[in-house]
Amino acid sequence: MNKPVSKVREAKLELYRKQGKIHARAVDGRFNRLRWALVWLTQIVFYGACWLSWESNGSSRQAILFDIAHEKLYLFGLVLWPQDALLLALVLILAATGLFLVTALAGRLFCGFLCPQTVYTAIFTWIEAKVEGDHLARLKLDRSPPSAGKLLRKAVKHGIWAVVALWTAITFVGYFTPIRELLPSIAGLRTGPWEAFWLIFYAAFTYVQAGLAREAVCQHMCPYSRFQGVMFDPTTANVAYDRQRGEPRSARRQGAGGGDCIDCGICVEVCPTGIDIRDGLQYQCINCGLCIDACDQVMERIGAPRGLIRFASERELAGAPAPQGLGGRPRVAVYGALLLVFSLLGGGYLAERSLLLVDVLRDRGALSRETAEGRIENAYTLKLMNLDDAPRQYRVAVSGLPGLEIVGSDQFAVAPATIRPVSVTVSAPGGALPSGIRPIAFEIVAEHDPATRVREPSSFALP
Ligand code: SF4
Ligand code: SF4
């Protein structure tokens, strides 16, 4: 039987559980350090990558840009077109499969360390702590009657949050409109309607999600928390309380026969979602590991081994041996295999991706015409799509009928990442060939690399 916890401790825990807003206690430790390392890493990449430039053909452009107006995605030297939607789909499938694999291995690890909701909540909470003080000071401030000092602190906090939210929105939109053009347009109040909409929407979204909603998003809004359980198996490592070791818990250590949990409640106080991990696996747990850091410190203080709360699987907690190989972990094997297959498909697509695409359109005005020399001519429009990030020169040839040739120029220059429609006239000797629609083919070859070539079937009308 558990001994009853002291009234003071009980009241303290209730305070954390029942008050509307969770003010988590700060804790240091390896998981907290890892969390902040990832906050820094993700934010340096997010806020910084839109400022990178890429030199291309003597001019400079933003290295990462989703140019929606021109239907192109620039990723350093790679230019992706709507025709590359398959690659983008593969990237999304890869990301989802990677997430499933991580979840099968270690639960909601992504939620605890990389999810933007967690990352921005950590940043906004850090700002709150700098302005309002530690968790107890924040609780006291929230419960204190209105005063000039309270108003000032709240105003400063919300002001800083608003600035961070606005800068986040500017950075986000800066991946769609070159950020070096966006900033002057904002300063001069010249942003377009879509940019203005997304700036306001994304700033408000960040402010509400990270500043006001916080853990409520993880608890009530995130769909992933609801179906993540289907990816778990008994070998999935989650943040877990070792009940066998911890119980019976007691405010005073009982020596032989007693558990290691001293019911201090610190693991609850540090939890950003306000749950008690000792109640077992809960969908609100984001696997951030902060309760592990807290409990490890408590264990060190009382001279007990660390790891009363730790990343452990159901199987490990039950004392069963770890499975050998992937045979005992079917979900991990399946997700790992899918990840490999989709990675190979993506790699194969990139390796085989042609940097030249061609559309051949027959001139609809006249099927054919006869020249003074008695030759038959058909007119075509060739849409040459240079998917490369460099200017290219292409040579056009035609085959399929005896004496078939191109009239006029057969070489065309196309600017980087551009579609150029060109008019091509094809001529065949008249009289020698029976009338009708005959199959022919255009062959377009890049001058710089004969391996970059496209063969497009078409037809030739003979009167
Ligand atoms: S921090 Fe550790 S010792 Fe304290 S209540 Fe939580 S599990 Fe028990
Ligand atoms: S229970 Fe522990 S791991 Fe889960 S959210 Fe709370 S602090 Fe993080």
Layout of SSEs?
Layout: H1 7-18, H2 30-49, E1 53-56, E2 59-62, E3 64-67, E4 72-75, E5 78-80, H3 85-106, H4 109-113, H5 116-132, H6 135-143, H7 148-173, H8 179-187, H9 193-213, H10 215-221, H11 223-227, E6 238-241, H12 243-246, H13 266-269, H14 290-302, E7 309-312, H15 314-317, H16 330-352, E8 356-362, E9 369-370, E10 375-386, E11 392-399, E12 405-407, E13 411-414, E14 418-429, E15 436-446, E16 453-462
Antiparallel strand pairs: 1-2, 3-4, 4-5, 6-7, 8-10, 9-10, 10-14, 11-13, 11-15, 12-14, 15-16
Helix pairs in contact: 2-5, 3-16, 5-7, 5-9, 7-9
Bound molecules: iron/sulfur cluster (SF4) (2 copies).
Q: What descriptors fit this protein?
A:
single chain, 463 residues, alpha+beta, Immunoglobulin-like, five-stranded antiparallel β-sheet, four-stranded antiparallel β-sheet, 16 helices, elongated, disordered N terminus, binds iron/sulfur cluster
Low-pLDDT runs: 1-5
Largest β sheet strand count, sense and barrel closure? 5 strands, antiparallel
Number of extended strands: 16
- Please identify the structural class as seen in this structure: alpha+beta
Rg for CA atoms: 32 Å
Strand content: 15-25%
Choose one word for the global shape: elongated
Tally the helices: 16
Q: Helical residue percent?
A: 40-55%
Mean pLDDT: 89
N-end to C-end Cα span: 101 Å
Q: Can you list the ligands bound to this structure?
A: iron/sulfur cluster
